[in-house]
Every structure is written in structure tokens, then in C-alpha cells.
Design goal:
- This protein is an all-alpha fold.
- 92% of the residues lie in helices and 0% in strands.
- The chain has one helix and no strands.
- The protein is rod-shaped, with a radius of gyration of 39 Å.
- One of its GO terms (cellular component) is lateral element.
- This is KASH5 protein.
Length: 92
């Protein structure tokens, strides 16, 4: 009976060692997942900054395009005013 108790104790000790190894593996995996999460957070912040920058660039480009359209329209209006004032007998 004492031999049986000794075998049970040995089996329990082995199981404990196995559980310790599993726990250590899980801790390492947890640490790696935390590292990956921090990396992804940094990447996400970087992508957000890039998106904001691209949005600004797009808005600036649209604004420049609108300014150019306004200038072209103003030039056409000025040309029409010149024609309306004095250019009746010239160009068609």
C-alpha cells in the first residue's frame, strides 16, 4: 500500500511538472501576444497618421483644383466683359 501511495505521489509530481511546463509555455505565448499587440497598436497609430496626411493632401489638391477652376472662370468672364464692351465687330 505504501508502494501504491509512492507511485501516486510520483505520478502527481510528474503531472505537476507537466502542468508547470504548460504554464511556462502559456506565459511565453502570452508575452509574445502582448508584444505583437503593442506592435500592432504602433502600426495602427502610424496608419492613422498616414491616413490623416493623405486626407490633408487630397483636400489641398482639391482646393488647388478649385482655385484653378475659379481663375479660369474669372478669365473667361473678364474676356466676355471685354468683348461685350468693345469687341462687337471683330471675332466670332
Amino acid at each position: 500500500s505504501s508502494r501504491q501511495a509512492l507511485e501516486q505521489a510520483r505520478a502527481a509530481a510528474e503531472e505537476l511538472e507537466d502542468l508547470k511546463a504548460v504554464a511556462k509555455g502559456l506565459e511565453e505565448e502570452n508575452g509574445e501576444l502582448r508584444r505583437q499587440a503593442r506592435h500592432m497598436e504602433k502600426e495602427q497609430r502610424s496608419l492613422c497618421l498616414q491616413a490623416e496626411s493623405l486626407q490633408e493632401e487630397r483636400l489641398l489638391a482639391e482646393g488647388q483644383g478649385l482655385r484653378e477652376q475659379i481663375q479660369a472662370q474669372a478669365a473667361r468672364v473678364a474676356d466676355l466683359e471685354v468683348r461685350a464692351r468693345g469687341g462687337h465687330g471683330g471675332h466670332a
